[in-house]
Amino acid sequence: MKNISRLLLAVAGTFIFVGAHAADTATEVQRDTNQQTRIEQGLQNGSLTTKEAGRLEQDESRVDRAQANAERNGNLSPAEKTRIQRDQNQVSQAINRDETNGARGNPNSASSQRMQADVQRNVNQDQRIENGVKSGALTNREAGKLERGQAHDDHLQARAARNGHVGGGEQRHIQMAENHQSNRIYNKKHNDVVR
């Protein structure tokens, strides 16, 4: 009887441990979603220029790469979580600084509209990853691999907006990468690997 009780406690402890790591991953992805939403809103209300949004996307790319590296083994250590949160705090401060620096973007320009659409796609993809982690359809390791794809897409957006203008050809290139990432998210969520 004691052995069965110990076994049940060990199994329950494992589920709590795995659940806590999944919650950490979901929390970090939720923060990505929130920051991407802030960038999009800044573009929409003109408080961010396309060039500023591009720099912020480069910052987001670095955070996504850090998350991908941290989740490579399927676990997020306390030190990794602290480092990622510090990086995210820095991005949050950069968003705030750029939104309040007095530079005004034209939300109705074709370039801003393209950037807004691309950032909105980031928001959607981050939400899909977060929902997959929360539901158990994505393991932490899978979420980490998908964050690497998000980092790639963020980097493409940053590069396109570097000069303050996102052209139609640049957007098509970004959209192709986003479509590839969308398919990867779908495939990872619908494979037979579960948490």
From TrEMBL:
Keyword Ribonucleoprotein: no
Tagged with keyword Signal: yes
Positions of region (Disordered): 28-131
Annotated Basic and acidic residues bias: 52-65
Signal peptide: 1-22
Ranges annotated as biased composition (Polar residues): 32-50, 106-126
Record key words, sorted: Signal
Protein name, entry field: Phage infection protein
Provenance organism: Silvimonas amylolytica
